[in-house]
Amino acid sequence: MRKFLLIAFIAVAATACKKDKDDSPSDLLIGTWVQTKFKVDYYDENDQIKISESDEDVSYLKFDGSNCQGTSGSGNTDNSAYTITSENGKKYISFANPEFSDFPKFEITTLTKSSLVFKVERPHEVYLYEDTNVSWESEKAVYTAEYTKQQ
After folding, report:
1. Does the global pTM surpass 0.90?
2. Is residue 82 within 8 Å of 98, Cβ to Cβ?
3. Residue 102 three-state SS
4. Residue 2 lies in a domain
5. What stretch of H or E contains 28?
6. What is the CATH number of the domain that holds 142?
7. How many domains are there within the chain?
8. How crowded is residue 95: how many other Cβ atoms within 10 Å of its Cβ?
9. What percent of the chain has pLDDT over 90?
10. pLDDT of 90-142, one tens digit each?
């Protein structure tokens, strides 16, 4: 009986001490993601948002571990290899195909099992007021795309 209790105790202690394996960014990314929000904030010289606009079109990203297929709201698809890197404690995703995205590299600000947020900052973006055809050059523009993982 003591032998059985000792074995049971060792088994419980060993499993209780095991650390859960953290999912790597590459593993978390695999799957199909639905864009829930896309916005662009244009900042003035005082680092204040002057203009904010958003897009409600639904798009999809499907990651398979090395390739990403993007599908726009109008149904157009494109593919690109991608890589995930870390720099100064931040995670980034880069796309190899220049036709895939206007931006070759995005900061991954959120990546969980169900949520993905990309961000890219570009200096001196020009905003065109469509109703007057007048343009304004911002100090910077921050593009943010939010996604939810499909089950």
Report:
1. no
2. no
3. coil
4. no
5. helix 25-29
6. 2.40.128
7. 1
8. 20
9. 62
10. 999 999 988 888 887 999 999 999 999 999 999 998 888 877 888 889 999 99
Residue 18 lies in a domain: no
Q: Count H helices, E strands: the chain? A: 2, 11
Q: Give residue 13's pLDDT band: very low, low, confident or very high (50, 70, 90).
A: very low
Domain extent for 62: 24-149
Euclidean distance between CA atoms 24 and 114, whole angstroms: 14
Looking from the CA of 66 toward its CB, the CA atoms found within 13 Å total: 0
Q: Which amino acid, residue 77?
A: T
Which one, of 13, 11, 31, 56, lies nearest residue 150 by Cα?
Answer: 31
- Residue 136 domain-assigned? yes
- Decide if 11 is inside a domain: no
Element of type H or E holding 15: helix 2-17
Query: Which residues does residue 91 pair with via DSSP β-bridges, in sequence order?
Result: 86, 108
Please name every residue paired with 12 in a beta bridge, in sequence order, or none if there are none: none
